[in-house]
Amino acid sequence: MTYPPPPSGQDPYQGQPDPYAPPPAANPYAPPPTSVPPVAPQSAQPYSDPYKAADPYAAAPQLQYGQPPYGQQPYGGYPPARPQNSMALVALILSLVGLLTWITAPIGAILGHSAMKQIRQSGEDGEGLAKAAIIVGWIITGLGVIGCLCAFGLPFLAVLGAGGSSSY
């Protein structure tokens, strides 16, 4: 499809700027543009000491665009605290209660292992609690097993040993 030629003597693009033309060159001798209005002269003071300390109770300076409001820190401050893993705390409590009731110590140690796995996956706090629960729980469990063997196993072995030999 072709377009008909423009009427004779008329250029349809006359008066339109060339979109591919370079921008006009700036005048190097022109004064720089000012966006700040000129400052009015202030009243003359008889004498001002340039070495005098500034008044610490003076009003806060006016804020410009992009500045944080008065009293707000320009940076984020401290990062928010990570959440605590509650299973690690429960595991430590059960391991320590195992000192009184031996049966809760292995439960606390096993929960401590589960808490360590959760902490590695979620990035929560409480790794120290979980490690303490594991250590305390298995130590108390081991001491309980040794105590049970001493209390019940040795007399049982003594009975078996005495029953096998007869002295008539």
Explain what this protein looks like in three dimensions:
By secondary structure, the chain is mostly helical. The protein has a domain at 86-161. Helix content is 41%, strand content 0%. The protein is built from three helices and no strands. α1 (86-97) runs antiparallel to α2 (104-122) and α1 runs parallel beside α3 (127-164). The model has no long low-confidence stretch (mean pLDDT 78).
List the helices and strands and how they pair.
Layout: H1 86-97, H2 104-122, H3 127-164
Provide the gyration radius in Å: 43 Å
Helix content: 40-55%
**Largest sheet properties:** none
Number of helices: 3
The low-confidence runs, each spanning 5 or more residues with pLDDT under 50, are: none
* Number of DSSP strand runs: 0
What class do helices, strands and sheet pairing give?
A: mainly alpha
Shape: elongated
> How much is the average pLDDT?
78
Question: How much strand?
Answer: under 5%
The span between the termini is: 131 Å
Q: SSE string, helix = H, strand = E?
A: HHH
Protein name: DUF4190 domain-containing protein
Keywords: Membrane, Transmembrane, Transmembrane helix
InterPro entries: DUF4190
Organism: Catellatospora methionotrophica
Provide key terms for this protein:
168 residues, mainly alpha, 3 helices, 41% helix, elongated, DUF4190 domain-containing protein
